[in-house]
């Protein structure tokens, strides 16, 4: 997949039962390479992906993204070349209001953080938010996976309101 990625990110209320709304889930591990742009290897269940993301535009709302599926073996070998700090999470797909919300529950050094993203067709697209969606964090670098790899949530979790940690 290649093209302009337009997404908004939100914190998820911890005490709400959002998992029962999920239509599916998958386990994701991803590593990063040193680069000017974001270069990522992802293993999602038993599939591998190479992703390159350009710089964010419009306060983090949109950016160019190139993604290509690679073999699981290639992904495992490339993960060994990544910088330290692997992102480990489960992703739940939650259909709501004509959109799919991708809810990520983080593990390891980022344990306790749950975020939701929704991809949009345009920057002005209106969408309905489910009740479990909380504070918007679109464009806040603390909530970029590439940032959390180097600066895990455990080191700054106290800066996030209690209902989100």
Automatic annotation (TrEMBL):
Active site: 32
SUPFAM superfamilies: CYTH-like phosphatases (SSF55154)
Stored InterPro entries: CYTH-like_dom_sf (IPR033469), CYTH_domain (IPR023577), NeuTTM/CthTTM-like (IPR012042)
Molecular functions (GO terms): adenylate cyclase activity
Entries under Pfam families matching the protein: CYTH
PROSITE patterns in UniProt: CYTH
CDD domains on file: CYTH-like_CthTTM-like_1
Domain of life: Bacteria
Keywords: Lyase
Domain CYTH, first and last residues per copy: 3-150
E.C. no: 4.6.1.1
Protein name (database record): Adenylate cyclase
Organism expressing this protein natively: Prevotella multiformis DSM 16608
């Amino acid at each position: 997949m290649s093209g302009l990625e337009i997404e908004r990110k939100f914190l998820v209320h911890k005490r709400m039962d959002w998992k029962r709304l999920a239509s599916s889930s998958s386990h994701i591990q991803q590593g990063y390479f040193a680069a000017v742009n974001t270069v990522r290897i992802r293993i999602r269940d038993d599939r591998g992906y190479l992703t390159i993301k350009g710089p964010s535009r419009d306060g983090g709302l949109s950016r160019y993204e190139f993604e290509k599926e690679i073999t699981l073996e290639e992904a495992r070998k490339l993960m060994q070349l990544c910088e330290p700090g692997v992102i480990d999470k489960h992703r739940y797909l939650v259909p709501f209001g004509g959109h799919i919300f991708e809810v990520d529950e983080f593990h390891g050094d980022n344990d306790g953080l749950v975020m939701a993203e929704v991809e949009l067709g345009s920057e002005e697209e209106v969408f309905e938010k489910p009740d479990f969606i909380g504070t918007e964090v679109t464009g806040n670098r603390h909530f970029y996976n590439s940032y959390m790899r180097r600066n895990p949530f455990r080191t700054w979790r106290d800066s996030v309101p209690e209902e989100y940690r």
